[in-house]
Design a protein that fits this description.
Length: 241
């Protein structure tokens, strides 16, 4: 994408590569997936699925670089996923929802409303990506998914009306806050550089304050699209415990 979308001070024409991640959380009560990434078909023809959006964010993935193939490395199939938490309904975050037919989709009520709004496509909501036959559970405030403090859904609006992060409390490696596009890049948090694709600057700044508070409590912040951070994180068959 154009770097100026995320860092307005960047040079005109400069581009940036953005990793698109999904996170598997294994819990005694079920397998939980945070986001599902891009649909595999955009690897070969992004415009066929995304339309003009594919020119604004150009896929550079290979055909087997998707959440389905990554789960198979762990001996899992889409049918082994019980819950899919959608940070939001933009196509690089929910593109593989359709494959998880035995899962319940969880999304913030404000996000579902935004996706159903009259001018939703212009705001990046493509029905082919988010409008799936699986049941959708909505929530509207902080939610402890299993009631034991291990997976907590935290509303972080700003990028979109119902963007949701997840605070994952692990037994050995501590807590991780998955921020999605609430904080796409480390610089967006450290320098308060507000991306141009922000729905509400006011809500975005309030979410940044909440994220800093969670970080001060000892949680590690996982940025939504930070290539430098992504390169240094455990991935695939590796895991945080």
């Amino acid at each position: 994408m154009r770097k100026q979308v995320y860092l307005p001070s960047a040079e005109r024409g400069e581009t940036i590569e953005l990793p698109v991640s999904c996170v598997l959380m294994r819990h005694a009560q079920g397998n939980v997936l945070f986001d599902t990434g891009c649909h595999p078909s955009v690897a070969t023809d992004g415009e066929a699925r995304w339309g003009s959006m594919a020119r604004a964010m150009a896929p550079i993935m290979s055909a087997d670089d998707n959440v389905i193939s990554q789960l198979s490395c762990l001996g899992l199939s889409p049918d082994d996923i019980d819950v899919v938490i959608c940070s939001h309904f933009h196509p690089d975050h929910c593109g593989c929802n359709i494959f998880f037919r035995k899962a319940t989709i969880i999304v913030h009520a404000a996000e579902l409303a935004a996706a159903k709004a009259e001018n939703a496509i212009a705001s990046g909501y493509l029905p082919v990506e988010w409008d799936c036959p699986m049941p959708i559970d909505v929530f509207d405030e902080q939610k402890d998914l299993f009631g034991d403090g291990h997976i907590t859904l935290i509303p972080l609006p700003g990028h979109t009306p119902g963007l949701t992060g997840v605070l994952a409390a692990l037994d050995r490696d501590g807590s991780f806050l998955l921020t999605s596009d609430a904080v796409a890049l480390r610089a967006n948090l450290e320098a308060e550089a507000t991306p141009k694709n922000t729905w509400s600057i006011e809500h975005h700044l309030k979410s940044l304050a909440e994220i800093r508070k969670i970080e001060a409590s000892g949680a590690r912040i996982v940025f939504g699209h930070d290539d430098e951070q992504w390169a240094g994180m455990k991935k695939g068959v590796e895991a945080y415990l």
